[in-house]
Amino acid sequence: MERAQEEKMLKVFGLYDIRSLGVSGEKSWVGDPTQGARGISGGQRRRLSLARSIACGARIMFCDEPTSGLSATDAEHVVRYLRLLSHKYSVLIIMSIHQPRREVARLFDELILLTSNPGRAVYQGPLSGLSEYAEKVGFVVPKQVNPTDRVMDLITPGTKSAREQDFIQYFSQKQQPILDEVVDAELRRERQTPMEILHAMREPLKVFGTLPTLRHSKYAVSFRRQLSVVAARQFRLRCRDKMHFLGDLAGAIAKALLFILAYYEIGKKGSPLQAGYFFFVLMASSIDQVKTMPKIISERTIMKLETSEALYSEWAYILPFTFMSMHVWFWSLMVNAVMESLYMMLSGIAKDATTAQVMSLPFLLLFMLYNGFTVTIQTCPKWLAWAIDISPVAYAMEAMTVAAAEYCVPDGPPCGQDGLYSAIVPHFGYKNRPKQALSVMCACMIIFRAVHVLALKFLNNIKR
């Protein structure tokens, strides 16, 4: 949506300027009650969800009890704003609601009353005609009584006053034939092509602002726009989550201090100790991103809601995580990015954080055991050599060790004369093949990300 369109939509739902409620409209945080983060009220949150649902220009909305859990005032506000949306933007809204107040029921253009177990239609029409309809069936509705409450009591099986069969029979005899005639007449009308329907809808759509050009995608904006918006949101969320940021910072400082104390002046020491240092750095990088799985899984429901409404694609959601973590692995180890991709893939497949952590153990054992250091190409069985060939940890260990053989430390052993290249490298079967190492790591990362996208599309769908 363009800026002007966004402002119009917020105004339609009464969210643009609500300072009287103590909130400054679009500058307010939504918040998350489950995390103790205060934000907008429940009614405002519900209206914002509805506004989000039509951000991509939806023409039909199905709302399943949008007023449940709200106060009577908030429920009326939600229905009133939906009515305004329907009349102003020509959006067809079909809503289910239980026991609406008289003020709420009056807002609907059409009411369809259903019995339960099974659902059978007993009335279709405006609220103003419900009392007269009930009298024709044989039941009087007092003027001071809400007609919907009275009729719902009569058509609900199991209650003392239940008379649902009377209403079902009257509907099938009186209203059903009329509705069938209307449906038949519509079916006999000349059909329109999709393009003709789109052209006919252009006039009511102009209230949204400048109409976009015809697109061949279900998304209202380009992928670049999706990527920039989602990345900006992820950045804002990360900046706002001060506790998480401080926790990451404190953890990084603690790990750095532990490595400093354990491997102080490691560059001046022998090659076996240096190789051990590389190994433990890789192990720390491999397990460092496990902490991201619970957070990713907790955000998955919101992501699936937004992608199902065609606000953005799954790739636009996943790629910003790579960019946001680039400052970690770009300066340390490529293996960190590969393992993060693995954990994100498992977060998309698993139903919860516990399952994701359990599923990560076989991958961790595979990559960390066949690491080219404790288990090398020389020592593992030939039929298991493939495990080292696909292990990002093994390639990182190999590349770091070979590179270190050509690196000179001031006041340290001469380059290549302490046995690092002449003894350790041949012993472990290391080769100078940075292109192959980079290719395998990139391939692993791309595969993990692609499987993550497929998992987000087809697994753990929201049960509506």
TrEMBL record:
UniProt keyword terms in alphabetical order: Membrane, Transmembrane, Transmembrane helix, Transport
Topology term for the membrane: Multi-pass membrane protein
Domain ABC transporter family G: 98-161
Location in the cell: Membrane
Main location: membrane
Occurrences of domain ABC transporter (ranges): 36-68
GO molecular function: ABC-type transporter activity; ATP binding; ATP hydrolysis activity
Any single GO CC term annotated in Swiss-Prot or TrEMBL for this entry: membrane
Transmembrane segments: 245-264, 315-334, 354-373, 437-459
InterPro entries: ABC2_TM, ABC_transporter-like_ATP-bd, ABCG_dom, ABCG_transporters, P-loop_NTPase
The ABC-2 type transporter transmembrane domain, residue ranges: 225-325, 328-402
Protein name, as recorded: ABC transporter domain-containing protein
